[in-house]
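Thread title: Can someone regenerate the structure for this chain?

I was given the following input by a collaborator and told the matching structure tokens would be attached. They weren't. Posting the sequence so someone can regenerate them.
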Amino acid sequence: MTGVFINYRTGDGATAAVLLDEQLKKVFGPENVFRDRRTAEPGVHFPPVLWRHLESCGVLLVLIGPNWLSLCDTDGRRRIDVPGDYVHDEIQRALTWRKTVIPVLIDSAELPKREQLPADIAELTERQFMQLRVPYAHLDLPVITEALRSHVPVRRTEPQPDPRPAPPASGAPQPGAYSTYKDCAVTNGSGDATVNQNRDAQSGDRQ
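Best answer:
Regenerated them for you:
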């Protein structure tokens, strides 16, 4: 199982989710990071896509902002208690499937107490949390990324060699030509140049 699934509440953590997504996809590749607004294409049947990505991921990041628990629906019910709430259901399934679940506290948020959560996700309070302070994201994002390296494969991009031959140095003889220098400057590994007296040198011979 590989990949990171970003769980967040609309209206409480969406900005942090975008910041986290942008950071993680640079390191692990966009194919290894799921954030619903970016990954799910328009018109797809959303639930099957959601659960397929959650099942294949190795880590669920639960973004908890200051209003994560208190946000309510139009009937005054806490969203976390409403049947079919995606935030609740993603956490519940990840815990049931024994995924690595990491709460990420946004700004001044605190980890909820066990009695504040529905019983089937109360285990979330027993997971070690991390922090993401949006004004200090440049400090916190690398810490989160480093913690995920043991769970998610890092995308490796090999540099492509330039197929064009390197042009000869200005004023240098063409390869295969021989020149005899009375004073020949040779560059050492340190970058210092020494002068060799009366040395025959073949141009184009490089290490």
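DSSP finds five helices and seven strands in the chain.
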